[in-house]
Amino acid sequence: MYKAKSEASRTVIYNADQDAHSPRRLSMMSELGTAIRQNQLVLHYQPRIHIASKRCMGCEALVRWQHPRLGMVPPGEFIPLAEMSDLIQPLGLWVLEKALQQIAAWRERGMELVVSVNLSTRNLMDAAFPSHIEKLLQKFPVPPDLLEVEITESTLIGDPERALSVIDRIHSLGVRFAIDDFGTGYSSLGYLKRLPIDTLKIDRSFIRDMLMDEQDAVIVQSTLGLAHSFGLDVVAEGVEDEKTLEALQKLNCEQAQGFHISRPVPADVFEAWYRAEGNPPA
Fold first, then answer.
1. Which tens digits make up the pLDDT trace of 231-281?
2. In 3-state terms, what secondary structure has residue 197?
3. Across residues 50-60, what is the average pLDDT?
4. Residue 281 burial by CB count (10 A; 0-12/13-18/19+): exposed, middle or buried?
5. Rounded to an integer, what distance in angstroms lies between the CA atom of residue 253 and that of residue 52?
6. Residue 28: Cβ within 10 Å count
7. What CA–CA distance (Å, rounded) separates 252 from 246?
8. Which residue ranges form the domains of the chain, and what is each CATH number?
9. What is the pLDDT of residue 14?
10. Nearest Cα to 243, choosing from 205, 208, 268?
11. CB of 220 within 8 A of CB of 186?
C-alpha cells in the first residue's frame, strides 16, 4: 500500500524485497542500531576528477554495512530501513563524523580534498541537525568547505521552507552543498535559485546514454548551460568510458565521477589510487 502511494499508482505487485516487515528486513532493522554503535559500518570513497587536468578534486563518501553474518550489505538495502525508523539521525551523524575524521587524516598526509556526503531528507528536516554538524566541525578542526553535503531535488518536496531553513544554517557554517541526481526530481528552478548550492551533479541516467541518445545529449548540454548561468561547477556522474569523458570535456563539463575513473573503494585503497593516478604533475 505504501509503495503504491509513494509511486502514485493504484496497484503495485507484491515484492518481498520491498516489504519492510519481511523476516530479513525486520532482523536487519533490529541489528542496524548495534551496527552503528559497534562500527560495523564503513565508508568507501569514489573519486571525482577535474576532466581537463585529470586531477582528483575530491570524493564521495558512500556508506557500507559489513554485517557479521550477511557480509557486505549495500546501502540500498539498509538506508531505507533507517529512514523508516529513528536510526536515520544517528546514521547521518556517524557518516559525517567518519568523513570529517578522514578529511583530517588525509590533510595530515598532504591530501587536501573535498569529501561529499549524502544526507537523508529526514536529516534536513531536523532543526537540531546544524548544531550537530557545528559540534563535529569543532571536534575535527578542518576547513568546513572541505565538507560537501549532497541533497536531491526531492528533499524539498515535503516541506521546502523547513528544508531551506536547515540548509541555510548548515551553509552558514561554511559547508558546501551539491544537488545530486539533477534532472530526476520535481523541484522548480525557483528553489535552485534560492539554494546555497556550489555544485550540480548530472544524474548517471543521462550521462550513460548521451553518446547514443540525442535527447540525453541535449539534456546534458542544457543542464551544463543552466548550471554555468548560476555560477555552479558541474559533476557528471556515472562516467563509464573514455569517449564519454572526452565528450563531456568538449561540452565544458568541469568534473566527472564513475567506474571509468574508479569504483568506490576503502580509504587506504583510495589514497593509493590518489598518489598513483589522482595527482598528476601540472
1. 999 999 999 999 999 999 999 999 999 999 999 999 999 999 999 988 877
2. coil
3. 95
4. exposed
5. 9
6. 19
7. 10
8. 2-278 (3.20.20.450)
9. 52
10. 208
11. no
Measured distance CA(121)–CA(152) in Å, rounded: 8
231 exposure class (CB count in 10 Å sphere: 0-12, 13-18, 19+)? exposed
Cα Rg of the chain, angstroms? 19
Quick one: pLDDT band at residue 21, thresholds 50, 70, 90?
Answer: low
d(CA 65, CA 59): 19
Residue with cell 563518501: 61
Of 39-43, 71-75, 200-204, the range with the lowest mean pLDDT is 71-75
Strands 233-236 and 255-257: parallel
- Nearest partner of 59 among 97, 92, 102, 88, judged by Cα: 102
Q: Contact at 8 Å (CB) between 146 and 117? A: no
What is the phi/psi pair of residue 190, to 5°?
-60, -40
Q: How many CA atoms lie within 13 A of 72 on its CB side?
A: 9
Residue-averaged pLDDT of the chain: 87
